[in-house]
Design goal:
Blueprint lengths: L19 H18 L3 E2 L5 E3 H8 L4 H5 L3 E3 L5 E4 L4 H10 L9 E10 L11 E11 L4 H17 L5 E7 L5 H15 L6 H9 L1 H4 L8 H5 L10 H16 L5 E2 L11 E9 L7 E7 L3 H4 L6 E8 H10 L11 E5 L5 H13 L4 E2 L7 H10 L4 E5 L1 H6 L1 E6 L4 E6 H15 L2
Parallel strand pairs: 1-5, 7-8, 12-13, 12-14
Antiparallel strand pairs: 2-4, 3-4, 5-6, 6-11, 7-9, 9-10, 10-11, 14-15, 15-16
The protein binds one RNA strand of 76 nucleotides through helix 3, strand 6, strand 10, strand 11 and helix 12.
Length: 428
RNA sequence: GUGAGCGUAGCUCAGCUGGUAGAGCAUCGGUCUGUGGCACCGAGGGUCGCGGGUUCAAACCCCGUCGCUCACCCCA
C-alpha cells in the first residue's frame, strides 16, 4: 500500500525560489566583488567538522555549542557537527595549511549555509546563510579593524541597505576583561533583587550579557553599571582609541555602544554589529570582532585575527523591506515561431542569441501565434522575435518590443548586433 | 526549552447565532489560423491541517494532536 504523503521542508529550512534566488545571487555577487576589491579571496570550507573544533573555539558553555549544534556520531564513532558558524573552520584551515607562511595578512571570505537548532522566527532559521570575512596574521593594527568595517559599510551601501547602524565597542583582552567582569559581577550582586530571572542567572554564567538585556525595567539599573571603557588596560584603550581615529579618517559613521558584547567566547578587544530596521526582533545583519587568541587556542602559533559574519537571510530581508531591491534582468527574447517550416530557423537563431548571453525562451511545441505572444508577455520577455514563413523566405526577422509594441525587421546579423548592444545598454 | 496567535483551492481571503464550501487573483481551454497586455465564456483544482467528541446535522462548538508564524532565551 502506498501511503499518500506530503513532504515538506524541515522546520527552520526553506526553499529560496525565483525570483528571490536572483536577489540572493545579486547580493552574493556584490559581496564577492567588494571583498575582492579589498584583496580578500574566497575560501571554501566543509559544512561539517569535528565537534571539538566548535566546542573549543566558540566555547563549550555557550548556547550555540551547548544546545544548538547538529551533532551526530559518524560511522567510525567520531563526533561531528554541522557548522554553526565558520570562523572556527577558517582558523582550522589557516593552521592546517600553514598559512602563516603566506606573505602579509591572510584575508579570506566565505559564503554558505550554517546550522543551528533554534526555534525559527523572523530572520532566524535552522539552516541560515552567512557571508563572512577574516583577516589573520601577525598584526593587530587598528587600521585592519577599520578596513574591515569600511568594507562592510561599502557593501551595505552598494546593496542598498538603508537605515543601518554600525555599533562598535571594545571588550578588552584576556588581561583586562576578567578584571572588569569581576567588578561588574560585584556590582550586579548588589542589585540582584531588582533584576529579572534571566539576568540573575547571567550574573554567574556570563555577567557581560546582562548588559544586552532588553527588559525595560532593567534599563535604568544597567545605565548605572560600571563600563568597560573605564577598565580597559592601557594597550586596549589605545587600540580602541586608534580604531575610532581610523574610522573618522575613513568617514565611517558609527555608534559607540558600551553594552555591545558578543556571545562567542573567542572575541577580544574590538566588537561590532550592524543592525537594520524592519527586521523584527532579530535586527542584527552582521556581527563580528577581533579574536586574537583563537589561533593559538586551536593549536597554531600566536596570531591576531578579526572577522565578521553577515546574516544573508536578514540582509536580503532588509533589502526587500526597504524597497531598494534592484530590478533583475529577466527574459530577453521569446522566439515566436509559427509552423514546422519555421522551426529550424527558430532553433538556430535561439542558439545564436544565447551565445551572445541573451536569455531566450524557445517554445518546444507549436503554438497558436496569439497564444505565443501572450506567453511572451506573461513570461516578461523584453522582445518577441517573430519567425513566420515570410521571415524565413526573406531572411529578415521581425523583432517586437513588448513594452511599446514597436516592431522592426532585421536580418540575422543586424538582429544579433542590435540585441547585443541593447543588452549591454540595459545591463541585462 | 517557554509563551502567544493562526491553519478553508497554487496565492490572498470570505463563509452570520451549527444546515454537508465560495470569491478574487493565478493556471488551462475557447471567442481569436500573423500580433500580447483588455474583455467575455468555460474548465480543472478542496476528505475546510489531522484525530476524536457533542449533535438529526460540524469549516463553525469541545478535547487532543500536528504544522506554521511571532516573541522570549540565544544569536547572523
Amino acid at each position: 500500500m502506498t501511503e499518500k504523503r506530503q513532504f515538506r521542508a524541515i522546520k527552520g529550512t526553506r526553499d529560496i525560489l525565483p525570483p528571490d534566488s536572483s536577489l540572493w545571487n545579486w547580493f552574493e555577487r556584490a559581496a564577492r566583488e567588494v571583498f575582492e576589491s579589498y584583496n580578500f579571496r574566497e575560501i571554501r570550507l566543509p559544512i561539517f567538522e569535528e565537534t571539538d573544533l566548535f566546542a573549543r573555539s566558540i566555547g563549550a558553555d555557550t548556547d550555540v555549542v551547548g544546545k544548538e549544534m547538529y551533532t551526530f556520531e559518524d560511522r567510525d564513532e567520531s563526533s561531528i557537527s554541522l557548522r554553526p558558524e565558520a570562523t572556527a573552520s577558517v582558523v582550522r584551515a589557516y593552521i592546517e595549511h600553514g598559512m602563516h607562511t603566506l606573505p602579509g595578512n591572510v584575508k579570506l571570505y566565505y559564503i554558505g549555509p550554517m546550522f543551528r537548532r533554534e526555534r525559527p522566527q523572523k530572520g532566524r532559521y535552522r539552516q541560515f546563510y552567512q557571508i563572512g570575512a577574516e583577516v589573520l596574521g601577525q598584526s593587530d593594527a587598528p587600521a585592519i579593524d577599520a578596513e574591515v568595517l569600511e568594507m562592510l559599510v561599502v557593501l551595505f551601501k552598494r546593496a542598498g541597505l538603508a537605515l543601518i547602524t554600525l555599533s562598535v565597542n571594545s571588550i578588552g583582552c584576556k588581561q583586562c576583561r576578567p578584571k572588569y567582569v569581576e567588578v561588574l559581577r560585584q556590582e550586579l550582586l548588589k542589585v540582584k533583587d531588582k533584576l529579572g530571572a534571566d539576568s540573575q542567572r547571567r550574573i554567574e554564567t556570563n555577567p557581560l550579557r546582562v548588559l544586552d538585556s532588553k527588559l525595560p525595567e532593567e534599563q535604568p539599573i544597567i545605565e548605572t553599571l560600571p563600563r568597560i571603557s573605564d577598565h580597559l588596560c592601557a594597550a586596549c584603550r589605545q587600540h580602541f582609541s586608534e580604531l575610532k581615529d581610523e574610522l573618522n579618517l575613513r568617514g565611517i559613521a558609527y555608534e559607540e555602544n558600551w553594552r555591545l558584547v558578543r556571545g562567542l567566547d573567542y572575541y577580544t578587544r574590538t566588537t561590532f554589529e550592524v543592525t537594520a530596521e524592519g527586521l523584527g526582533s532579530q535586527n542584527a545583519v552582521c556581527g563580528g570582532g577581533r579574536y586574537d587568541g583563537l589561533v593559538e587556542l586551536l593549536g597554531g602559533h600566536p596570531t591576531k585575527g578579526i572577522g565578521f559574519a553577515i546574516g544573508s537571510d536578514r540582509a536580503i530581508l532588509s533589502i526587500q523591506e526597504g524597497g531598494q531591491a534592484p530590478k533583475m534582468p529577466g527574459l530577453g527574447v521569446f522566439v515566436a515561431w509559427m509552423s514546422a517550416a519555421t522551426y529550424p530557423a527558430a532553433v538556430r537563431i535561439a542558439r545564436k542569441l544565447r551565445e551572445c548571453g541573451i536569455a531566450v525562451e524557445l517554445p518546444p511545441e507549436a503554438m497558436k501565434f496569439k497564444k505565443s505572444l501572450g506567453l511572451a508577455d506573461k513570461l516578461g520577455a523584453r522582445y518577441a522575435l517573430i519567425i513566420g514563413e515570410d521571415e524565413v523566405t526573406s531572411g529578415t526577422y521581425t523583432l517586437k518590443r513588448l513594452a511599446d509594441a514597436e516592431q522592426k525587421k532585421l536580418n540575422e546579423n543586424d538582429l544579433l548586433e542590435y540585441l547585443e548592444s541593447e543588452r549591454r545598454g540595459s545591463g541585462a
